[in-house]
Amino acid sequence: MPEFTLIKMPLEAELAWAERAARLQIIDSYITARTESEATAARWEAVRYDRANPGTSSLVAELDAHDHQPAAA
Fold first, then answer.
1. Please, what's the b/e burial string for 22-40 (b: 16 or more CB within 10 A of its CB; e: otherwise)?
2. What does pTM read for this prediction?
3. What is the pLDDT of residues 26-68, one digit of tens each?
4. Count of the separate structural domains present in the chain
């Protein structure tokens, strides 16, 4: 008799929390950027995120709501 391995799929709630954590990490990187290069890198990460997740609200639009000021050194 063949053996079957149960593959556990993440619950929808777990996926939602993981997505939220990824978004918050990108936003935090943008807000805490100390240089324009760091802010630009975070913004490009947001563009990549938006392209990979077309059904979600725009992360770039969220970043646009924040006026980037370099974080204090």
1. ebeebbebbeebeeeebbe
2. 0.75
3. 999 999 999 999 999 999 999 999 999 999 999 999 999 877 6
4. 1
